[in-house]
Amino acid sequence: MILSAANTQLTEDIMRKTCCCFTGHRPQKLFRPVDDIKIDLENEILSAVRDGYRTFISGMAYGTDIWAGTIVVRLKDRFPNLKLIAAVPFPDFSVSWNDEWKRRYEILISRADQVRFICPEYRNDAYMLRNQWMVNHSGRLIAVYSGRSGGTENTIRYARQAGLTIKTLKGS
Questions:
Q1: 153 Cβ partners below 8 Å, 6+ apart?
Q2: What digits encode the pLDDT tens for the residues 88-109?
Q3: What is the mean pLDDT of the chain?
Q4: Are 88 and 52 in contact (CB under 8 A)?
Q5: For residue 28, what is the DSSP state?
Q6: Which of 63, 90, 85, 89 is nearest to 72 (CA)?
Q7: Around 97, how many Cα atoms within 13 Å sit in the side-chain half-sphere?
Q8: Percent of the chain that is helix, strand, coil (3-state, to 5)
Q9: 104-112 CB contacts, 8 Å cutoff, 24+ apart
Q10: Tens-digit pLDDT profile for residues 109-143
Q11: Regarding predicted confidence, which is higher, 32 or 99?
Q12: From CA 38, how far away is CA 40, in angstroms rounded?
């Protein structure tokens, strides 16, 4: 079977309707108890599952991304058709993290259904390109946002421009 450009676009549109990505601040920029944020993340992920989302993309940063990805992996026991894509900005992304976050990162990478390195090596715009890639392949964004400027705010703005459904959880 030969796919035309129209068929390819149709397939991508269908995939986006079942794909959800995450964005959020690192723990030091969040001012709510971590356990409360994790409960809200799980509830929002379950809501996405009820709405037909089956594939989740984590940007794999420590904090929100790893918490969300870990929840998706745990929910696979209840919903075996869930998939996790690890969208990593570049190899060695976690090299400067503390040992505990590196351990969580490695466990999550090993449990992901797909690992996608966005850039072959570090570059100044690697994080932005990762965030755009996630949004471009999703129909919904779940964001943990405390009102601070930076990558999370930029990702929300980009997702809004792209027409995604955005679910914002308070980070403060």
A1: 145
A2: 999 999 999 999 999 999 999 9
A3: 91
A4: no
A5: G
A6: 85
A7: 19
A8: 45, 20, 35
A9: 104/62, 104/66, 104/70, 105/60, 105/62, 105/66, 108/58, 108/60, 108/66, 108/69, 108/70, 108/73, 108/84, 109/60, 111/73, 111/84, 112/58, 112/69, 112/73, 112/84, 112/85, 112/86
A10: 999 999 999 999 999 999 999 999 999 999 999 99
A11: 99
A12: 5
Assigned token pair, 161: 């421009």
The CA distance from 19 to 14, in Å, is: 9
Q: What are 128's two structure tokens?
A: 């932005």
Task: List, in order, residues 6 or more apart from 117 with CB less than 8 Å away.
Answer: 88, 89, 90, 91
User: How does pLDDT run across 43-61, given as a tens digit for each residue?
Assistant: 999 999 999 999 999 999 9
| Cα 160 from Cα 43, distance rounded (Å) | 22
Q: Is 141 left (phi over 0), alpha (psi -120 to 50) or beta?
A: beta
What pLDDT is attached to residue 168? Answer: 94
